[in-house]
Amino acid sequence: MTTPGLPLRQLLMSLGEPLVELQTAPHGLDVPVRDVAILDPEDPPTAAAGELVLAIGARGRAALPALRAAGRAGAAAVAVKLDAPGQADALREAATEAGVALLSVRRETRWEHLDSLARAIIAGPDAPDAPGAPEHNAGDLFSLAQTVAVLTNGIVSIEDTSSRVLAYSRSSDSDEVDDLRRLSILGWQGPEPYLSKLREWGVFQHLRSTDTVIAVDPHPELGLRRRLAIGIRTGAQPLGTIWVQEGARPLAPLAEQALVGAARVAAAQLVRRRRELSADVRLTQTLLTGLLEGSTGPQSLATHLGLDVRRPATVLAYSAGTTEQLNRAEVTGLISVHTAARHRAALLAPIESRVYVLLPELPANLPLATVRGWAHEVVAAARDHLGVPLRAAIGSTVDGLVRVPDSRAQADRILDAMGRGGVDLEVAALIDVQAEVLVSEVLALLQERGGLRDPRLTALTAYDRRHGTRLAESVLAWLDALGEVRVAADALHIHPNTLRYRVRRAEQLTGIDLAQPQQRLLAMLQLRLPADS
C-alpha cells in the first residue's frame, strides 16, 4: 500500500531556508514526498515515485541526468548543491522540463544531516525519535483561554508582546466586561490610553522581567476592573501576556497558580507557532521574490497561497533613498500593515534597497486613483510617524501573475527616474512621469556608453572642473529656457549680459553651434549628466 506522503510545502516549511531553498516546483507544492533517496555519483541515475532525491556529489550541471531520471520516475523533488549562482538557471529549466521540483542545498550542509532530518519530518511528529515530537497536545490558544477562564472564574485574553490579542475566553454576560477588555477585543489590540496607564504603573516592566503574577487594582474612574496578569516567556525572551479580568464573581483562590501553569503551556504553543509561521513566511518570501525577479513562475506561489493566477495584479515599489532607512523593521512593518488594511491578499518583499508590494487578485477595472490613494496613505504615515521620506511607484496593472515581473520592472523605472531628481512627486505612476522616465533612461544610456556622447560637450564640463567656471550650467539653463536670456539669468541669479557671455564663450571653446537643433537637443541631454561622469 502506497503511503500518502507529506506535501512538499510542509517539508520545505519544516526544513527551512537555512538548509534548502526552492528553485522551482512545476507541479506546485502539494506533490507528496513519501521517502528520501540518496543518489551516489557513481551509481546510475535512478529514482522512484514520490522520492526526494539527494544528488550527492553531482554539483551544478552534473545533476542534469539525475533531474531527468527523477522526472521520468515521478519523483517529488531533487536536491543539489550549486558551485556558482549561474548554474541555477540551467537546472531550473531542466527541472521544469522534467516536471520535478528542484531544491538547492547550502554548500556547508552535510548530506547525512539533511537525509536524517528529512526522513524524520516525512515520518511525522508521532514517529519514534522524530525531532520536536510533542509530549502532548495542549490545544489551541482559544481553548487555553477558555480553560483558564474556568479555573480562575475570570475573563481571559492572551496577547503578544505588542498587546495584540491572540485569543480570548467567551463571556456570557457583557456587563462583566470592562472597557479595556471590550476595546481590546473589538480592536484586537489594547487602546493606547489604557496601555499608557499600565506602562505608567510599571505593569509592563514587571511582565517583561519576571515570571510572577502581578495584580492590577480596579480603577472605576478609568472603567478598569481588577485583573491579574503574567508574562509568557521562553528563557529570558518575552512572548506575550495572559490577562485575567475579574467579572461578576471574585477570582478563584488558586487563580495565580492557574496563571503560572497557563503561561508555561502558552509559551510552548507560541514557540511552535512562531516556528511554523517563520517557516511559512520564509517560503512565501522565497516564492514571491522569485516571481518578482522573474526567476520562478507564478504557479508555485499561487498554489502555496491559493491565488488565482489569471486575476489582475499590480506591483508597488517603495524607496527611502537610503538602504539603512528602508531596512528598518518599522518601515517595512508600516508598509505591510497599511497595505494589508486595504487589500487582504497583499504580499510584501524587501529586495535590496526597496520594498515591493504585490497586489494580486485585484478587481477588474480598479481605478488607478484607488491604488494611488493607498500608496499616499503609506507615504504620509511613514513621514508623520517615522520621519522617513518614502517615495512610491505604481507599476502597471497586468492581466495575471505571469506578468508580475513586467509590473515590477515598470515600478523600478519610475523609482529610478524619481531618484535622479526632477520629479516633485511622492507617489507616481508611469502616466505621471512618462517623459521623466524616458529622459532618465536616455541619460542612463549616455552615462553607460561614452561613445554616444559629443566629445566637445565632455570637454566643456572638463573645462569647468579645471577652471572653476559655470559654462555648462549656463548653457543648460539657457537651453531649458528656450533661449529666453532673462528667464535663464534669473534662474542662475546672474546678469543677462553675463549669461550671454558664457554661452558665446562655450561655443568658442568647443566649436559647437547652438543654432543647430540637433546640437541643442544633444546638449540638453548630455549636460544633464553628473559633471564627473
From TrEMBL:
Residues 471-529 form the PucR C-terminal helix-turn-helix domain. Residues 300-416 form the CdaR GGDEF-like domain. It holds the Pfam family HTH_30. Belongs to the CdaR family. This is PucR family transcriptional regulator.
